[in-house]
Amino acid sequence: TSFFGEYSRVVAEEGSTRMGDSELGAAAFDTENEKRIEVMLRENDYGPFLKISEGKPKVHQWDKVIIPASGIAALFAEITTCVGYGAELSEGGGDPNVRGNAVHSKSLKVEAKVVFVDLLENSRGRYLKLSTRAPHSQGKSTVVIPAAACPELLASIRSACGVPDGADPETALAAKFPAPESHGAAVAASASTASAHSSQNGGAPAPREPKSTPQAGAKTAGAGGLPKSRVLKDGGRRIVLEPRETEAGVVLAIRSEGGGHAAGEVTLPLKLWRLLGSRVTEFADAVHPPPAAAGAAAAAPTTRTPATGVETGQAAAGHGQQQQQQHQPPAGKARGALWVENLPWTYTTEDLVTEFGAHGTLDVDATHCNVRRNNKPSGTAKVQYLQPKDAEKALEAMQGKELGEPPRAIRVRWDHSA
Q: What's the rounded Cα separation, in Å, for the pair 127 and 170?
């Protein structure tokens, strides 16, 4: 049974894939060079995404790229552009000494990923190369599809995504999977509002809004009882911490002002607040340990009874504190950090997030597959959960689980590294 046939059987019987993703749509076709191209629309806790795989089922060799759903419309448009160039070689394009002449190249920024769409040609013909690069990863995931098969690829994307017959695919995909509103869009909307105000008031400029920088202790305007803003001062520099209500939920805005430094602002979603606090505390303790912890053992005098040598007084108290510290959970367990070994060489960060994300919410910025200096996979990975209890569940569930083809039993342990 081919991989895709087995996959379809599992979805039909179990209602979901083995990796915890729900199936939304799928299509597949074969190319002239005996390759099979599969297009699948899936959804997990992070939202819907498009998975394009290419390989030869007989030898179980598969490559894949994963594109967030908000980038499907832009990807469809670029593939359509590539189809317009045709599948025939250009004059001089069949030079056997050239690895791949670029006919058309485009990079797309889709949320945290970069998607590369390249129409290339060599002595064997033209081909479409789709690559994705995730954050914190130096390598790329790539699939290669003959240019002559690109129209079938577009039809498969339409079918998997449920685009109705007769509808404009790019418009339908953009409406079905809208891109997240960017800061630039918000600025444009603000400018449009100001322009409308000017027109209504005979060309008079709109009244200037007061500065958004809150004073120390000032309450935020958001409903729901958000905490007060805080301002940290270091000489002439100010660090403003401001909780805000947005359409996407509650965020924490961290803004730097003054002190001869360039002003800047970052926003963090609510689920990362505690993680940020714990990380900052860890860094501070590592660089400058608290004086009480560093000098506790030296400051406590030791008194022993002549007969038994039992410690008494402050020394005994200090010894009790040391025993209590010894019984504290390991650093990796307390942080919800796992270290994974013996991963398949073809495993990507996207596969890692999909597999381990089924057991709890991940810190996707700190979860990644490791690569060597030559950019080849090392077969190891770091997995960071937002809740340590989720990491414990994942450790038990994933220990010894077989992944990839041929199957490899992975090893999972606590990650005690800083």
A: 22
Q: Give the pLDDT of residue 371.
A: 85
What pLDDT does residue 137 have? 62
The alpha carbon of residue 281 and the mean position of all alpha carbons in its chain are separated, in whole angstroms, by 24
State the DSSP string of 349-389: HHHHHHHHGGGS-B-GGG-EEEE-TTS-EEEEEEEEBSSHH
- Which residues are CB-contacts of 191 (< 8 A; sequence separation ≥ 6)? none
Environment class of 77 (CB within 10 Å of its CB; exposed 0-12, middle 13-18, buried 19+):
middle
Residues in the chain: 418
**Owner of token pair 């002439």:** 236
What are the b/e assignments for 122-147, b being 16+ CB within 10 Å? Answer: beebbbbbbbbbbeebebbbbbebbb
Q: How far apart are CA 321 and CA 42, in angstroms?
A: 51
Average pLDDT of each block of 10 consecutive residues along the chain (418 residues)?
Answer: 52 49 87 86 86 80 87 93 81 53 84 87 85 74 90 93 89 86 46 48 47 40 63 75 80 77 74 75 73 49 45 47 49 82 89 90 88 85 91 91 87 82
Q: CA 140, CA 177: separation in Å to the nearest integer?
A: 24
10 Å CB burial of residue 176 (0-12, 13-18, 19+) is middle
pTM to 2 decimal places: 0.42
Locus of tokens 């160039």: 85
